[in-house]
Amino acid sequence: MTFHVITLFSRAFDSYLGESILKRAIEDKKIRVKFYNPRDFTKDKHKRIDRAPYGGGPGMVIQALPVIRAIEAAYSNVLKNNRIRDVKKLGARSYKLKAPIIWLSPSGKQFTNEMGTRMATCKDLIIICGRYEGIDARVRKAFKVEEVSVGPFVLTGGELPAMLMLDVISRQVPGVLGDFNSREETRVASPDVYTRPEIFEHRGKKYRVPKILLTGHHKKIEEWKKARIRNPE
């Protein structure tokens, strides 16, 4: 699966993608992440991509054309991946190519694990990260986009939400996790987990592993886990 991320700040992803499971997934070619900076698609010699908003107001708005060209560049790579040469009517063909465009927005549809599982079936996914006061809304008219929010809050940019989505979706790609059954959402997983030692002492108080987990009685352990899910207190 290939993630095509349109962002002004691709280096913000370096640390997260360069560690642990996602790093290994990239090295093993289970997933790929490509970046497209709208500044690289502007004709302004100073690479400026923001202007004051029409109608007044604070802040600056990212211009439409650099973002549109970045999306088209991403689609060119999508078409190559699908061995398609015809690049006409790109926007209308996004879902036909299984390359939906995600427009990150605080007013978008709440992102969920179920949504991530659906997106993991796509061969390509295009994610647009906004900044400043946002991106010129005409981009949404040029392409069919799916507006998505990662929570009821506002961030300074779309890079953190994009990383969150990358993580959630990548976990659903076979081979990314060492054991596909490690996905907690596919099994009974208690919010509490324990490991050795069975007992330890801290500041005069002993802390023990729940006895049920030491019995080896799998049915009762599963029932205990289900009870902890219903009542974690």
First-residue to last-residue Cα separation = 39 Å
Number of strands: 9
CATH H-level homologous superfamily name of the largest domain: SPOUT methyltransferase, trefoil knot domain
Report the β-strand fraction as a percent range. 15-25%
Structural shape: elongated
CATH architecture classification of the largest domain: 3-Layer(aba) Sandwich
> Could you say how many structural domains there are in total?
2
Number of helices: 7
What is the structural class? alpha/beta
Oligomerization category of the chains in this entry: single chain
Order of strands in the sheet with most strands = 2-1-6-5-7
Radius of gyration: 22 Å
Which CATH class of the largest domain is shown? Alpha Beta
| CATH topology descriptor of the largest domain | Alpha/beta knot
N-to-C SSE string, H for helix and E for strand: EHHEEEHEHEHEHEEH
> Uncertain regions: pLDDT < 50 for 5+ in a row?
none
Largest sheet: 5 strands, parallel
Question: Share of helix among residues?
Answer: 25-40%
The overall pLDDT, averaged over residues, is: 89
